[in-house]
Amino acid sequence: MRILVATDAWQPQVNGVVRTLMMLAKAVEPLGAKVAFLTPDHFRSMPLPTYPDIRLALVSPRMASEFIARVAPDAIHIATEGPIGHAVRHYCHKRGLPFTTSFHTRFPDYISARLPIPESWVWAWLRRFHRPSANIMAATPGLLSELSARGFANISLWPRGVDTNLFVPQRRAPLDLPRPIFLTVGRLAVEKNIEAFLSLDLPGTKLVAGDGPLRAELAARFPQAVFVGMKHGEELASIYAASDVFVFPSRTDTFGLVLLEALASGVPVAAYPVSGPRDVVGDAPHVGALDWDLRSACLQALTLSPEACRAFALGMTWEASARAFLDNAVKTNTRKIIAKERTRAPQRLPNGARWRQS
């Protein structure tokens, strides 16, 4: 089975959407499927001035149709609501092709944090975008319930996973910092609410791994915090394992893969009792402390068992995530319809690009 995934979020971005899609592509192969990605790499694109790692793809429905006809997928999944997502949605809608979508980002919260646009307008736009979807995939039961309450239909659960071979308690970095170490990992942008963490009166060290438009401002305002920049792979895993508490100050994330990465590393979580953390650790108070008083949550998390955190994370696999995705995707089948289009499609992709297969 070949699945085309259309996404505006792609490398060099480092975020939960990109990580989820890359792990999905790897996890579906043993299950007999392959993923072909349609990304900004296939079109001319330009970086956004404030976010140079985020590129805006210059794509038309015709350019997307040439790629889709060439790949001839069995199923089409639209992961993001950007220009590529809209182009593929237009292609499918015009031809009566079924497709699935997923809800990764709380755009209403993100946009209202930056612009004077009512959240209700953004929710209306999102409902319109996802309405033709045969299956809207949500990461958590809480998000599924919220979307249903907001008028979305055809919603299914697509849980996330964690690489428990990479993120392990034994991979400890030799951090020569005062203990306890309170760590946060993520993009340093307004929606992540990092300031709430850095403002806390906590013992030991506040450690920040990540980059973003607010890094210079936050580093200047909170000189006692330690900023180590963007980290990847084993280096990131070693920082997790060497920390005592993982602090997740975001109030807007739909899930938060970093929560599972911390737990797999044997590090308990401190967070606000909002949908993302609540869905991850809400039923397992022995691995995380959720409190509107974030300082209280941090201090409570210090008393929790690293072994319990690790055991909890071992049950959250990418294989289970991939199986759930495939169960949702196989409800659609586009190959027969696209095969007819393929005979009329030009053999060259836009700008000479080749299709990317994981």
Which of globular, elongated, flat, extended, rod-shaped describes the shape?
A: globular
Placed side by side, the strands forming the largest sheet appear as 8-7-6-5-1-2-15
Please write the string of helix (H) and strand (E) elements.
EHEEEHEHEHHEHEEHEHEHEHEHEHHHHE
Radius of gyration: 21 Å
Question: How many separate structural domains?
Answer: 2
CATH homolog superfamily of the largest domain: Glycogen Phosphorylase B
Largest sheet: 7 strands, mixed
CATH class of the largest domain: Alpha Beta
Number of helical stretches of at least 4 residues: 15
| Class per helix and strand makeup | alpha/beta
Record field, number of beta strands: 15
The name CATH uses for the topology of the largest domain is Rossmann fold
Low-confidence runs: 342-358
CATH architecture of the largest domain: 3-Layer(aba) Sandwich
Indicate the proportion of strand residues.
Answer: 15-25%
Overall pLDDT score: 88
> How widely separated are the two ends?
13 Å
Helix content: 25-40%
